[in-house]
Design a protein that fits this description.
seven-stranded antiparallel β-sheet; alpha+beta; globular; 586 residues
Protein backbone atom coordinates (compact mmCIF):
# COMPACT_ATOMS: atom_id res chain seq x y z
CA UNK A 1 0.00 0.00 0.00
CA UNK A 2 1.02 3.63 -0.37
CA UNK A 3 2.52 5.31 2.67
CA UNK A 4 0.07 6.61 5.26
CA UNK A 5 1.22 10.24 4.98
CA UNK A 6 -0.48 10.48 1.59
CA UNK A 7 -3.78 10.66 3.50
CA UNK A 8 -2.72 14.10 4.79
CA UNK A 9 -1.48 15.40 1.44
CA UNK A 10 -3.42 17.83 -0.71
CA UNK A 11 -3.78 16.90 -4.37
CA UNK A 12 -4.68 18.58 -7.65
CA UNK A 13 -5.03 17.05 -11.11
CA UNK A 14 -1.71 16.42 -12.83
CA UNK A 15 -1.02 18.29 -16.05
CA UNK A 16 -1.67 16.46 -19.29
CA UNK A 17 1.19 14.47 -20.80
CA UNK A 18 1.62 15.29 -24.49
CA UNK A 19 2.98 12.16 -26.14
CA UNK A 20 3.95 13.63 -29.53
CA UNK A 21 7.67 12.82 -29.61
CA UNK A 22 8.54 16.51 -29.29
CA UNK A 23 7.23 17.97 -26.02
CA UNK A 24 8.94 15.28 -23.93
CA UNK A 25 11.79 14.35 -26.27
CA UNK A 26 12.27 12.36 -29.44
CA UNK A 27 12.42 9.05 -27.55
CA UNK A 28 9.33 9.69 -25.42
CA UNK A 29 6.56 7.85 -27.36
CA UNK A 30 5.58 4.95 -25.12
CA UNK A 31 6.61 1.44 -26.20
CA UNK A 32 8.20 -1.35 -24.18
CA UNK A 33 11.02 -2.67 -26.35
CA UNK A 34 14.76 -3.18 -26.78
CA UNK A 35 16.78 -0.91 -29.06
CA UNK A 36 20.38 -0.64 -30.19
CA UNK A 37 21.55 2.94 -30.57
CA UNK A 38 24.52 2.92 -32.89
CA UNK A 39 27.91 4.54 -32.43
CA UNK A 40 28.02 7.85 -34.32
CA UNK A 41 24.22 8.26 -34.19
CA UNK A 42 22.95 11.72 -33.32
CA UNK A 43 19.75 11.50 -31.27
CA UNK A 44 18.68 14.97 -32.40
CA UNK A 45 20.32 17.96 -34.14
CA UNK A 46 22.75 19.88 -31.94
CA UNK A 47 23.62 16.96 -29.66
CA UNK A 48 26.84 14.99 -29.39
CA UNK A 49 27.03 11.81 -31.52
CA UNK A 50 27.21 8.58 -29.54
CA UNK A 51 30.72 7.33 -28.77
CA UNK A 52 29.69 3.65 -28.56
CA UNK A 53 26.82 1.33 -29.37
CA UNK A 54 24.23 1.42 -26.57
CA UNK A 55 21.53 -1.10 -25.69
CA UNK A 56 18.37 0.68 -24.57
CA UNK A 57 15.61 -1.10 -22.67
CA UNK A 58 12.70 1.26 -23.16
CA UNK A 59 9.60 1.70 -20.99
CA UNK A 60 10.39 -1.26 -18.75
CA UNK A 61 7.72 -1.80 -16.06
CA UNK A 62 8.90 -2.07 -12.46
CA UNK A 63 6.40 -3.04 -9.75
CA UNK A 64 6.51 -1.21 -6.43
CA UNK A 65 5.66 -2.94 -3.13
CA UNK A 66 2.02 -1.80 -3.33
CA UNK A 67 1.55 -3.18 -6.86
CA UNK A 68 1.89 0.17 -8.65
CA UNK A 69 3.95 -0.02 -11.86
CA UNK A 70 6.43 2.67 -12.79
CA UNK A 71 8.33 2.75 -16.08
CA UNK A 72 12.06 3.15 -16.58
CA UNK A 73 14.51 3.49 -19.45
CA UNK A 74 17.79 1.62 -19.05
CA UNK A 75 20.95 2.20 -21.08
CA UNK A 76 23.82 -0.30 -20.97
CA UNK A 77 26.73 -1.67 -23.00
CA UNK A 78 25.59 -3.98 -25.78
CA UNK A 79 27.68 -6.77 -24.23
CA UNK A 80 26.62 -5.95 -20.68
CA UNK A 81 27.43 -8.67 -18.17
CA UNK A 82 27.08 -7.78 -14.50
CA UNK A 83 27.38 -4.00 -14.76
CA UNK A 84 26.71 -1.42 -12.01
CA UNK A 85 23.90 1.09 -12.45
CA UNK A 86 23.58 4.84 -11.95
CA UNK A 87 20.06 6.11 -11.15
CA UNK A 88 18.58 9.59 -11.62
CA UNK A 89 15.40 9.84 -9.52
CA UNK A 90 13.11 12.79 -10.26
CA UNK A 91 9.75 13.76 -11.80
CA UNK A 92 11.51 15.12 -14.90
CA UNK A 93 10.75 13.02 -17.97
CA UNK A 94 13.05 10.03 -18.41
CA UNK A 95 13.19 10.59 -22.19
CA UNK A 96 13.19 14.39 -22.18
CA UNK A 97 16.85 15.02 -23.00
CA UNK A 98 15.86 16.66 -26.29
CA UNK A 99 12.70 18.38 -24.99
CA UNK A 100 12.46 22.03 -26.10
CA UNK A 101 12.07 23.30 -22.52
CA UNK A 102 15.51 21.91 -21.64
CA UNK A 103 17.31 22.69 -24.88
CA UNK A 104 16.05 26.28 -24.59
CA UNK A 105 17.14 26.47 -20.96
CA UNK A 106 20.69 25.30 -21.60
CA UNK A 107 21.01 27.63 -24.59
CA UNK A 108 19.84 30.54 -22.44
CA UNK A 109 22.50 29.71 -19.83
CA UNK A 110 25.19 29.68 -22.51
CA UNK A 111 25.89 25.96 -22.17
CA UNK A 112 24.40 24.92 -25.49
CA UNK A 113 23.56 21.23 -25.96
CA UNK A 114 26.67 19.74 -27.57
CA UNK A 115 27.89 18.53 -24.14
CA UNK A 116 25.00 16.02 -24.06
CA UNK A 117 24.10 12.97 -26.13
CA UNK A 118 20.40 13.89 -25.91
CA UNK A 119 19.82 10.76 -23.82
CA UNK A 120 20.48 12.76 -20.67
CA UNK A 121 17.55 13.07 -18.31
CA UNK A 122 17.39 16.63 -16.98
CA UNK A 123 19.96 17.05 -14.18
CA UNK A 124 21.04 13.39 -14.44
CA UNK A 125 24.10 11.55 -15.75
CA UNK A 126 24.61 11.31 -19.52
CA UNK A 127 24.14 7.63 -20.45
CA UNK A 128 26.46 7.91 -23.47
CA UNK A 129 29.45 8.77 -21.27
CA UNK A 130 28.78 6.23 -18.55
CA UNK A 131 27.87 3.32 -20.83
CA UNK A 132 31.18 3.88 -22.65
CA UNK A 133 32.91 3.33 -19.29
CA UNK A 134 31.14 0.13 -18.29
CA UNK A 135 28.00 1.34 -16.48
CA UNK A 136 24.27 1.08 -16.95
CA UNK A 137 22.10 4.16 -16.43
CA UNK A 138 18.49 3.89 -15.24
CA UNK A 139 16.14 6.83 -15.74
CA UNK A 140 12.75 6.29 -14.06
CA UNK A 141 9.47 8.07 -14.53
CA UNK A 142 8.49 8.06 -10.89
CA UNK A 143 5.00 7.23 -9.58
CA UNK A 144 2.31 9.13 -11.50
CA UNK A 145 4.65 10.72 -14.06
CA UNK A 146 3.88 10.12 -17.76
CA UNK A 147 2.70 6.47 -18.08
CA UNK A 148 3.72 5.39 -14.57
CA UNK A 149 0.79 4.42 -12.35
CA UNK A 150 -0.29 5.97 -9.07
CA UNK A 151 -0.42 9.56 -7.86
CA UNK A 152 2.52 11.96 -7.78
CA UNK A 153 4.07 12.91 -4.47
CA UNK A 154 6.82 15.48 -4.03
CA UNK A 155 9.70 14.15 -1.92
CA UNK A 156 9.30 12.21 1.31
CA UNK A 157 8.69 8.64 2.39
CA UNK A 158 6.68 7.60 -0.68
CA UNK A 159 9.50 8.50 -3.07
CA UNK A 160 12.05 7.06 -0.65
CA UNK A 161 10.29 3.68 -0.59
CA UNK A 162 9.80 3.67 -4.35
CA UNK A 163 13.48 4.47 -4.87
CA UNK A 164 14.37 1.62 -2.53
CA UNK A 165 12.16 -0.76 -4.53
CA UNK A 166 13.72 0.31 -7.84
CA UNK A 167 17.24 -0.22 -6.50
CA UNK A 168 16.43 -3.71 -5.30
CA UNK A 169 14.71 -4.54 -8.61
CA UNK A 170 17.80 -3.44 -10.55
CA UNK A 171 20.02 -5.57 -8.33
CA UNK A 172 17.93 -8.63 -9.20
CA UNK A 173 18.33 -8.25 -12.97
CA UNK A 174 20.58 -10.72 -14.81
CA UNK A 175 22.68 -7.92 -16.31
CA UNK A 176 23.25 -6.18 -12.95
CA UNK A 177 26.34 -6.51 -10.79
CA UNK A 178 24.16 -5.73 -7.77
CA UNK A 179 25.84 -2.37 -7.24
CA UNK A 180 23.95 0.89 -7.72
CA UNK A 181 24.53 4.58 -7.11
CA UNK A 182 22.35 7.68 -7.08
CA UNK A 183 23.62 10.78 -8.84
CA UNK A 184 22.34 14.09 -10.20
CA UNK A 185 21.68 17.69 -9.29
CA UNK A 186 18.89 19.68 -7.65
CA UNK A 187 15.76 17.49 -7.31
CA UNK A 188 17.95 14.47 -8.13
CA UNK A 189 20.16 15.38 -5.16
CA UNK A 190 17.20 16.15 -2.90
CA UNK A 191 15.76 12.69 -3.58
CA UNK A 192 19.10 11.04 -2.76
CA UNK A 193 18.97 12.18 0.87
CA UNK A 194 15.63 10.40 1.32
CA UNK A 195 16.24 7.24 -0.68
CA UNK A 196 19.68 6.65 0.85
CA UNK A 197 18.25 7.14 4.36
CA UNK A 198 16.00 4.12 3.66
CA UNK A 199 19.23 2.09 3.42
CA UNK A 200 18.48 -0.09 0.39
CA UNK A 201 20.83 -3.12 0.67
CA UNK A 202 22.10 -2.70 -2.89
CA UNK A 203 22.73 1.03 -2.82
CA UNK A 204 26.51 1.36 -2.99
CA UNK A 205 27.19 5.12 -3.10
CA UNK A 206 25.57 8.52 -3.63
CA UNK A 207 26.56 11.78 -5.31
CA UNK A 208 24.18 14.58 -4.25
CA UNK A 209 25.08 17.72 -6.21
CA UNK A 210 23.34 20.81 -4.82
CA UNK A 211 20.12 19.59 -3.24
CA UNK A 212 17.88 21.05 -0.54
CA UNK A 213 17.06 18.69 2.32
CA UNK A 214 13.96 20.09 4.06
CA UNK A 215 10.80 20.81 2.10
CA UNK A 216 9.55 23.34 4.64
CA UNK A 217 12.73 25.24 5.51
CA UNK A 218 14.41 25.15 2.11
CA UNK A 219 11.47 25.49 -0.26
CA UNK A 220 7.99 26.29 1.03
CA UNK A 221 8.79 28.55 4.02
CA UNK A 222 12.39 29.79 3.78
CA UNK A 223 12.87 31.83 6.95
CA UNK A 224 9.22 31.16 7.81
CA UNK A 225 8.10 33.26 4.82
CA UNK A 226 5.75 31.35 2.48
CA UNK A 227 6.71 31.26 -1.18
CA UNK A 228 4.46 29.55 -3.74
CA UNK A 229 6.10 30.96 -6.84
CA UNK A 230 8.94 28.50 -7.40
CA UNK A 231 6.76 25.61 -6.20
CA UNK A 232 4.30 26.42 -8.98
CA UNK A 233 7.19 26.25 -11.43
CA UNK A 234 8.18 22.81 -10.13
CA UNK A 235 4.60 21.58 -10.28
CA UNK A 236 4.45 22.13 -14.04
CA UNK A 237 6.67 19.05 -14.40
CA UNK A 238 4.01 16.81 -12.87
CA UNK A 239 2.52 15.51 -16.12
CA UNK A 240 0.51 12.32 -16.46
CA UNK A 241 -0.89 10.18 -19.26
CA UNK A 242 -3.02 8.17 -16.81
CA UNK A 243 -5.11 10.88 -15.13
CA UNK A 244 -2.96 10.93 -11.99
CA UNK A 245 -3.28 13.43 -9.19
CA UNK A 246 -0.25 15.46 -8.10
CA UNK A 247 0.65 16.52 -4.60
CA UNK A 248 0.02 20.27 -4.47
CA UNK A 249 2.45 21.98 -2.10
CA UNK A 250 0.71 25.34 -2.57
CA UNK A 251 -2.43 23.87 -1.03
CA UNK A 252 -0.32 22.37 1.74
CA UNK A 253 1.22 25.78 2.45
CA UNK A 254 -2.30 27.09 3.10
CA UNK A 255 -3.45 24.02 5.03
CA UNK A 256 -0.31 23.46 7.12
CA UNK A 257 1.48 26.74 7.92
CA UNK A 258 3.71 25.24 10.65
CA UNK A 259 6.63 22.85 10.27
CA UNK A 260 5.37 20.36 12.86
CA UNK A 261 2.58 19.23 10.50
CA UNK A 262 3.04 15.60 9.46
CA UNK A 263 3.25 16.50 5.77
CA UNK A 264 6.27 18.75 6.38
CA UNK A 265 7.88 16.36 8.84
CA UNK A 266 7.76 13.76 6.08
CA UNK A 267 9.84 16.12 3.89
CA UNK A 268 12.79 16.43 6.30
CA UNK A 269 15.71 14.24 5.27
CA UNK A 270 17.39 12.41 8.14
CA UNK A 271 20.84 12.19 6.62
CA UNK A 272 22.25 10.68 9.81
CA UNK A 273 20.74 7.39 8.58
CA UNK A 274 22.83 7.44 5.40
CA UNK A 275 25.75 5.03 5.72
CA UNK A 276 27.00 4.55 2.14
CA UNK A 277 29.96 6.50 0.74
CA UNK A 278 28.90 9.99 -0.31
CA UNK A 279 30.55 12.50 -2.63
CA UNK A 280 28.64 15.73 -1.91
CA UNK A 281 28.87 18.83 -4.09
CA UNK A 282 27.81 22.28 -2.89
CA UNK A 283 28.29 25.98 -3.49
CA UNK A 284 27.74 29.25 -1.66
CA UNK A 285 25.66 30.75 -4.45
CA UNK A 286 22.63 28.51 -4.91
CA UNK A 287 19.76 30.34 -3.22
CA UNK A 288 17.57 27.24 -3.49
CA UNK A 289 19.99 24.49 -2.45
CA UNK A 290 22.95 25.88 -0.50
CA UNK A 291 21.37 25.87 2.95
CA UNK A 292 20.00 22.34 2.61
CA UNK A 293 23.15 20.89 1.07
CA UNK A 294 25.36 22.09 3.91
CA UNK A 295 22.84 21.02 6.54
CA UNK A 296 22.64 17.54 5.01
CA UNK A 297 26.45 17.35 4.90
CA UNK A 298 26.79 18.34 8.56
CA UNK A 299 24.42 15.57 9.67
CA UNK A 300 25.55 12.92 7.20
CA UNK A 301 26.03 9.51 8.84
CA UNK A 302 28.49 8.15 6.26
CA UNK A 303 31.96 7.34 7.55
CA UNK A 304 33.30 7.77 4.00
CA UNK A 305 32.23 11.18 2.80
CA UNK A 306 33.63 14.05 0.76
CA UNK A 307 32.54 17.64 0.29
CA UNK A 308 33.56 19.79 -2.66
CA UNK A 309 32.45 23.44 -2.70
CA UNK A 310 32.66 25.04 -6.15
CA UNK A 311 32.05 28.49 -7.64
CA UNK A 312 29.60 27.78 -10.48
CA UNK A 313 25.93 27.01 -10.94
CA UNK A 314 25.16 23.32 -10.55
CA UNK A 315 24.56 22.40 -14.21
CA UNK A 316 27.75 23.78 -15.80
CA UNK A 317 29.65 22.24 -12.88
CA UNK A 318 28.03 18.81 -13.06
CA UNK A 319 28.43 18.43 -16.81
CA UNK A 320 31.97 19.83 -16.98
CA UNK A 321 34.27 17.25 -18.56
CA UNK A 322 36.91 17.32 -15.81
CA UNK A 323 34.31 17.14 -13.05
CA UNK A 324 32.62 14.20 -14.75
CA UNK A 325 35.98 12.45 -14.89
CA UNK A 326 36.48 13.05 -11.17
CA UNK A 327 33.00 11.71 -10.42
CA UNK A 328 33.93 8.60 -12.40
CA UNK A 329 36.97 8.09 -10.15
CA UNK A 330 34.59 7.99 -7.18
CA UNK A 331 32.14 5.66 -8.92
CA UNK A 332 34.89 3.43 -10.32
CA UNK A 333 36.35 2.90 -6.85
CA UNK A 334 33.08 1.83 -5.24
CA UNK A 335 31.10 0.32 -8.12
CA UNK A 336 33.84 -1.20 -10.30
CA UNK A 337 36.32 -1.98 -7.48
CA UNK A 338 39.11 -0.10 -9.24
CA UNK A 339 42.13 0.72 -7.08
CA UNK A 340 42.48 4.38 -8.13
CA UNK A 341 43.39 5.99 -4.78
CA UNK A 342 40.02 7.75 -4.46
CA UNK A 343 40.10 7.41 -0.63
CA UNK A 344 43.16 9.67 -0.61
CA UNK A 345 41.03 12.50 -2.00
CA UNK A 346 40.92 15.41 0.46
CA UNK A 347 37.79 15.12 2.57
CA UNK A 348 36.84 18.78 2.11
CA UNK A 349 37.72 21.14 -0.70
CA UNK A 350 36.35 24.67 -0.53
CA UNK A 351 36.40 27.85 -2.57
CA UNK A 352 36.92 31.51 -1.78
CA UNK A 353 35.19 34.16 -3.89
CA UNK A 354 36.56 37.62 -4.61
CA UNK A 355 34.09 38.73 -7.35
CA UNK A 356 37.06 40.06 -9.34
CA UNK A 357 38.10 37.02 -11.35
CA UNK A 358 40.54 35.57 -8.85
CA UNK A 359 38.51 32.92 -7.03
CA UNK A 360 40.53 30.18 -5.38
CA UNK A 361 39.03 26.73 -5.79
CA UNK A 362 39.65 23.27 -4.35
CA UNK A 363 41.40 24.52 -1.21
CA UNK A 364 42.13 21.40 0.84
CA UNK A 365 40.75 21.03 4.36
CA UNK A 366 39.68 18.30 6.75
CA UNK A 367 36.51 20.06 7.91
CA UNK A 368 34.16 22.87 6.99
CA UNK A 369 34.62 25.47 8.29
CA UNK A 370 38.37 24.88 7.94
CA UNK A 371 40.82 25.10 10.81
CA UNK A 372 41.55 28.75 11.53
CA UNK A 373 37.98 29.97 11.02
CA UNK A 374 36.97 31.94 14.12
CA UNK A 375 33.52 33.39 14.79
CA UNK A 376 33.90 37.16 15.13
CA UNK A 377 31.23 39.71 15.93
CA UNK A 378 30.92 43.03 14.14
CA UNK A 379 28.47 45.33 15.89
CA UNK A 380 26.11 47.70 14.11
CA UNK A 381 26.69 51.40 14.83
CA UNK A 382 23.46 53.24 14.11
CA UNK A 383 24.98 56.69 14.28
CA UNK A 384 27.85 56.09 11.85
CA UNK A 385 26.15 53.30 9.87
CA UNK A 386 29.30 51.29 10.38
CA UNK A 387 30.36 47.88 11.68
CA UNK A 388 32.85 47.67 14.53
CA UNK A 389 34.39 45.07 16.80
CA UNK A 390 32.98 46.59 20.01
CA UNK A 391 29.32 47.43 20.73
CA UNK A 392 28.27 51.01 21.34
CA UNK A 393 27.09 51.83 24.85
CA UNK A 394 24.11 53.84 23.61
CA UNK A 395 21.31 52.52 21.47
CA UNK A 396 20.80 54.55 18.30
CA UNK A 397 17.72 53.11 16.53
CA UNK A 398 17.65 53.13 12.75
CA UNK A 399 14.22 53.27 11.09
CA UNK A 400 13.01 52.51 7.60
CA UNK A 401 9.57 52.39 6.03
CA UNK A 402 8.65 48.79 5.26
CA UNK A 403 8.17 48.44 1.53
CA UNK A 404 8.86 52.10 0.92
CA UNK A 405 11.98 53.85 -0.32
CA UNK A 406 14.63 52.93 0.44
CA UNK A 407 12.95 50.29 2.64
CA UNK A 408 16.30 49.19 4.01
CA UNK A 409 19.21 50.16 6.26
CA UNK A 410 22.84 49.27 5.63
CA UNK A 411 26.09 49.25 7.58
CA UNK A 412 29.65 49.10 6.27
CA UNK A 413 33.24 48.44 7.23
CA UNK A 414 36.33 49.01 5.09
CA UNK A 415 39.26 46.66 5.66
CA UNK A 416 42.75 47.93 6.39
CA UNK A 417 44.32 44.59 5.44
CA UNK A 418 43.40 41.59 3.31
CA UNK A 419 40.64 39.66 5.08
CA UNK A 420 39.00 36.30 4.47
CA UNK A 421 35.79 34.77 5.83
CA UNK A 422 35.05 31.04 5.46
CA UNK A 423 32.26 29.23 7.28
CA UNK A 424 28.81 29.92 8.71
CA UNK A 425 27.73 33.55 9.28
CA UNK A 426 24.65 34.84 11.06
CA UNK A 427 23.01 38.10 12.06
CA UNK A 428 21.58 38.88 15.49
CA UNK A 429 19.28 41.85 15.18
CA UNK A 430 17.16 43.55 17.82
CA UNK A 431 14.17 44.92 15.97
CA UNK A 432 10.67 46.27 16.45
CA UNK A 433 7.74 47.15 14.21
CA UNK A 434 5.48 50.19 14.45
CA UNK A 435 2.07 50.04 12.81
CA UNK A 436 1.98 46.28 12.26
CA UNK A 437 2.20 43.04 14.25
CA UNK A 438 4.90 41.26 12.19
CA UNK A 439 7.85 41.87 9.92
CA UNK A 440 9.76 40.00 7.24
CA UNK A 441 13.46 40.81 7.46
CA UNK A 442 15.95 40.13 4.66
CA UNK A 443 19.71 40.30 5.23
CA UNK A 444 22.32 40.61 2.48
CA UNK A 445 26.11 40.74 2.94
CA UNK A 446 27.83 42.34 -0.04
CA UNK A 447 31.32 43.14 -1.24
CA UNK A 448 32.15 46.65 -2.47
CA UNK A 449 35.33 47.43 -4.36
CA UNK A 450 37.68 50.26 -3.40
CA UNK A 451 35.52 52.72 -5.38
CA UNK A 452 32.31 51.68 -3.64
CA UNK A 453 30.83 49.57 -6.45
CA UNK A 454 28.72 46.58 -5.40
CA UNK A 455 30.26 43.41 -6.84
CA UNK A 456 28.69 40.18 -8.06
CA UNK A 457 29.52 37.41 -10.50
CA UNK A 458 27.72 35.18 -12.96
CA UNK A 459 27.92 31.47 -12.22
CA UNK A 460 26.73 30.43 -15.70
CA UNK A 461 28.58 30.93 -19.01
CA UNK A 462 26.14 33.46 -20.49
CA UNK A 463 26.89 37.03 -19.35
CA UNK A 464 24.76 38.70 -22.01
CA UNK A 465 22.28 41.54 -21.84
CA UNK A 466 19.19 39.37 -21.29
CA UNK A 467 20.84 37.59 -18.36
CA UNK A 468 21.89 40.97 -16.97
CA UNK A 469 18.23 41.99 -17.04
CA UNK A 470 16.93 38.78 -15.45
CA UNK A 471 19.57 38.65 -12.71
CA UNK A 472 19.65 42.30 -11.66
CA UNK A 473 16.82 41.77 -9.18
CA UNK A 474 16.08 38.07 -9.69
CA UNK A 475 17.30 34.73 -11.09
CA UNK A 476 19.48 34.57 -8.00
CA UNK A 477 20.75 31.04 -8.74
CA UNK A 478 22.51 32.34 -11.87
CA UNK A 479 24.41 35.28 -10.39
CA UNK A 480 26.08 35.29 -6.99
CA UNK A 481 25.67 38.56 -5.12
CA UNK A 482 26.80 37.59 -1.63
CA UNK A 483 25.60 36.04 1.61
CA UNK A 484 21.88 36.11 2.33
CA UNK A 485 19.22 35.13 4.85
CA UNK A 486 15.67 35.99 5.84
CA UNK A 487 13.26 35.55 8.73
CA UNK A 488 9.65 36.34 9.61
CA UNK A 489 9.74 37.83 13.10
CA UNK A 490 6.67 35.92 14.34
CA UNK A 491 8.48 32.65 13.43
CA UNK A 492 11.67 33.53 15.33
CA UNK A 493 11.46 30.82 18.01
CA UNK A 494 14.65 28.74 18.00
CA UNK A 495 14.73 24.95 18.11
CA UNK A 496 16.78 24.30 21.25
CA UNK A 497 17.56 20.75 20.15
CA UNK A 498 19.57 21.72 17.08
CA UNK A 499 20.20 25.48 17.21
CA UNK A 500 23.73 26.62 18.05
CA UNK A 501 25.46 29.96 18.41
CA UNK A 502 27.16 29.28 15.09
CA UNK A 503 24.08 28.14 13.14
CA UNK A 504 20.62 29.18 14.37
CA UNK A 505 17.79 26.76 13.65
CA UNK A 506 14.11 27.53 13.99
CA UNK A 507 11.29 25.35 15.32
CA UNK A 508 8.67 26.97 13.05
CA UNK A 509 6.06 25.39 15.31
CA UNK A 510 4.40 28.55 16.64
CA UNK A 511 3.43 32.09 15.63
CA UNK A 512 4.44 34.84 18.06
CA UNK A 513 3.02 38.12 16.78
CA UNK A 514 4.55 41.42 17.86
CA UNK A 515 2.97 44.13 19.92
CA UNK A 516 3.50 47.68 18.69
CA UNK A 517 7.09 48.76 19.32
CA UNK A 518 8.05 45.48 21.05
CA UNK A 519 11.78 44.78 20.66
CA UNK A 520 12.55 41.17 19.74
CA UNK A 521 15.82 39.35 19.12
CA UNK A 522 16.08 37.84 15.64
CA UNK A 523 18.80 35.22 15.11
CA UNK A 524 18.98 35.10 11.32
CA UNK A 525 20.84 32.17 9.78
CA UNK A 526 22.84 33.27 6.74
CA UNK A 527 24.13 31.21 3.85
CA UNK A 528 27.62 29.65 4.20
CA UNK A 529 30.36 31.86 2.86
CA UNK A 530 33.85 31.96 1.46
CA UNK A 531 34.52 35.65 0.71
CA UNK A 532 37.79 37.56 0.47
CA UNK A 533 38.34 41.29 0.81
CA UNK A 534 41.48 43.21 -0.11
CA UNK A 535 42.73 46.18 1.87
CA UNK A 536 40.58 49.14 0.90
CA UNK A 537 37.53 47.05 0.01
CA UNK A 538 34.28 47.22 1.95
CA UNK A 539 31.79 44.81 3.46
CA UNK A 540 28.23 46.09 3.46
CA UNK A 541 25.38 44.41 5.30
CA UNK A 542 21.88 45.34 4.16
CA UNK A 543 18.84 44.85 6.37
CA UNK A 544 15.78 45.15 4.17
CA UNK A 545 12.01 44.79 4.05
CA UNK A 546 12.25 43.47 0.47
CA UNK A 547 13.52 40.27 -1.16
CA UNK A 548 16.27 42.12 -3.01
CA UNK A 549 17.82 39.00 -4.51
CA UNK A 550 14.51 38.04 -6.12
CA UNK A 551 13.36 34.64 -7.34
CA UNK A 552 15.55 31.64 -8.07
CA UNK A 553 15.19 31.43 -11.87
CA UNK A 554 14.19 33.79 -14.71
CA UNK A 555 10.47 34.40 -14.94
CA UNK A 556 9.79 33.33 -11.36
CA UNK A 557 9.11 36.10 -8.81
CA UNK A 558 10.59 35.96 -5.33
CA UNK A 559 8.67 35.68 -2.08
CA UNK A 560 6.14 38.42 -1.35
CA UNK A 561 6.89 39.92 2.08
CA UNK A 562 4.17 40.69 4.62
CA UNK A 563 5.39 44.11 5.70
CA UNK A 564 3.63 47.31 6.74
CA UNK A 565 4.46 50.29 8.89
CA UNK A 566 7.97 51.05 10.11
CA UNK A 567 10.83 48.74 11.04
CA UNK A 568 13.13 49.83 13.85
CA UNK A 569 16.61 48.34 14.09
CA UNK A 570 18.28 48.86 17.47
CA UNK A 571 22.06 49.14 17.49
CA UNK A 572 23.56 49.55 20.94
CA UNK A 573 23.33 49.31 24.69
CA UNK A 574 21.18 46.35 25.72
CA UNK A 575 20.22 45.92 22.05
CA UNK A 576 23.64 45.57 20.50
CA UNK A 577 22.81 44.07 17.10
CA UNK A 578 25.70 42.37 15.32
CA UNK A 579 26.84 40.45 12.29
CA UNK A 580 28.79 37.29 13.20
CA UNK A 581 31.31 36.23 10.57
CA UNK A 582 33.74 33.29 10.29
CA UNK A 583 37.06 35.16 10.15
CA UNK A 584 40.08 33.21 8.95
CA UNK A 585 42.84 33.87 11.46
CA UNK A 586 45.54 31.72 9.88
Amino acid sequence: MTVKITEDMKFSPAFDYIDDGVEHGVLSPFETKKMILKKGEQIAPGFKPLDVDIKMLKDVPVTMRDGVKIYVDIFMPTDAVKVPTLIGWSPYGKSAGTAPRYTNLFNMLGMGNAWSSGLTKFEAADPAYWVAHGYAVCNPDMRGIAHSEGNITEIGSQEAQDGYDLIEWIASQPWSSGKTALTGTSYLAWSQWFIAAEQPPHLTAINPTEGLSDGYRDLAYIGGIPDKNFINRLGANHVSATGALREDLTKEIDAYPLADAAVWQDKIADTSKIKVPAYVIGSYSNTLHTMGTFRAWRNLGSSEKWLRIHDRQEWPFYYDKDNTEELRRFMDYYLLDKDNDWPKTQQVRYTTIDFEGHNKTDIAATTFPPTGSQLTRYYLNGQLRSLQTEPTTTDVPVKYQAGGLPGRASFQMTFEKDTEFVGYPKAKLYMAAEGYDDMDVYVWVQKLDARGNVLSEFVVPNHGAALQDFTQEGASALRYKGVWGRLRASMRHLDDKVSTDEIPAYAFDRVEKLSNGEVVALDIVLSPMGLTYKAGETLRVVVSSKDELGGVMPGTPGATPDNKGTHILHTGGEYASFLQLPLMTK
